[in-house]
Amino acid sequence: MNGISNDVFDKKEGIPAGYKNIQVIDQNGVLVAFEGISGCGKSESIKMLSEYLNSRGYYPSIIEWNSNKTIRRFVGWLNSRKLLTPGIYSILQWLSFAWDYTRKLKPLLNRKGIVIADRYIYSGLTRDKANGAAGRLGRLLSRKVRQPDILFMFDIEPEICYERMKYRDKELFHPNRRINNNRLLKNKDLYYLKKLRQHYIKLMNDNILSSTNVFTVTSNDINLADLVEYYLLKKTRERTRNAANDEVVHYKKYEPG
Q1: Residue 16 has pLDDT above 80, yes or no
Q2: Structural domain 6-242, CATH architecture
Q3: Which residues, other chains included, contact 105 with Cβ-Cβ below 8 Å and sequence gap of 6+?
């Protein structure tokens, strides 16, 4: 991987011993992103992290990928009429992200807020690849936006993720017509999950992650809160040390205005 930090979290080893070498990203606020294929367990980890940080007096905001309700309804409408192509879906998901980034995420970070991103640009990039979309808009936006301080990449076997989705009766949505119309594929959802994971693995070795602390999570039994809190305290100390005498940088007890 090409991130600043390249440690792996697993059940046996727990939190990597070298996590204290995590480097501070010199930008306003703190952005922690969670990525992984559907069913990987990131949502539960986000919930646990958010609850812990709130209990410790940090007040994080959670921003979900593709959360614009108007665009979601439009996507559903197009799909119901079989008008949704990978290219159209790609443009719409990136427009949704651009709206959320400029109206929600960036203002929070500019106010030195803590943002937990339930998926970030890496979801859009891997989905474009898996869906067969050109993805020009996504690549352009990805070069313009803020990179996360910490990226947790959940690398869970697709078979496990598929069984979780099946148990929860969760539907996997995508506009890849080649997969949807392929009569030879016995398990189209599992095939798509495997395809997504392949593109995630390729992305994790891309230079787009060169300025991000990247941690691979291979088990859902790991509490990531200690690492995040350690980073918050470290960033507070370093930015306060480098600030002007009359400026105090502190992420603790921050409440969104």
Answers
A1: no
A2: 3-Layer(aba) Sandwich (3.40)
A3: 31, 63, 115, 117, 146
